[in-house]
Amino acid sequence: MARIAPATYPLTVYYDATCPLCVAEMAAMRARDAADRLSLVDCSPLGFSGGPAPREALMTAMHTVDAAGRVLAGVAAIRACRAAVGLPAGGALLDLPLVGALADRAYAVLARNRYRLPRWLVARLADRGAIAPATCADDRCRF
């Protein structure tokens, strides 16, 4: 798996706002986006157009477009979002061919089944900091 060049900002993120997991993840990303690097776009409305791919593709995997026009999808898009808000993006681990391939497959399975995830599980992941966790010190959290 080739190393992807760092994104340039702003980073436009196309996501499915009818998916509870996607909404929780984007809310957490927005809360952490102190530098205002992300521009979130809901691609779920029927007839949506104007994204970097047809609506069907955007609804299958999260996509991002950086200021240089580079399009990323799936795990690469998630990594770009996390890097934009200052979270570890997986770096060297996801650059390993086997790990990267497994992450891509796991993402595809999760994306296909995202509507089946119970809301309580999504809420629990968010509460435990599994979704874009806050960084806390001295009882103050940076989002």
Please count the beta strands (DSSP E, at least 2 residues each): 6
What is the terminal separation in angstroms?
Answer: 31 Å
What order do the strands of the largest sheet run in, or round the barrel if closed?
Answer: 2-1-3-4
- Rg measurement, Å: 15 Å
Count of distinct structural domains: 1
Global mean pLDDT: 82
Query: SS-based structural class?
Result: alpha+beta
Helical residue percent? 40-55%
Give the topology, please.
Elements: E1 11-15, H1 20-32, E2 38-42, H2 55-60, E3 63-65, E4 71-73, H3 75-84, H4 91-95, H5 97-112, H6 119-127, E5 135-137, E6 140-142
Helix pairs in contact: 1-6
Please, could you describe this protein's structure?
By secondary structure, the protein is of the alpha+beta class. The chain has one domain (11-133). It has helices spanning 20-32, 55-60, 75-84, 91-95, 97-112, 119-127, and strands at residues 11-15, 38-42, 63-65, 71-73, 135-137, 140-142. The protein has a four-stranded mixed beta sheet, with helices on one face. Strands 5-6 form a two-stranded antiparallel ribbon. A hairpin with a 5-residue loop joins strand 3 (63-65) and strand 4. Helix 1 runs parallel beside helix 6. The longest helix has 16 residues, at 97-112. The chain starts with 10 loop residues before the first strand and ends with a strand. Mean pLDDT is 82; it is low at 132-143.
Summarize the structure.
The chain has helices spanning 20-32, 55-60, 75-84, 91-95, 97-112, 119-127; strands at 11-15, 38-42, 63-65, 71-73, 135-137, 140-142. It has 143 residues and is an alpha+beta fold.
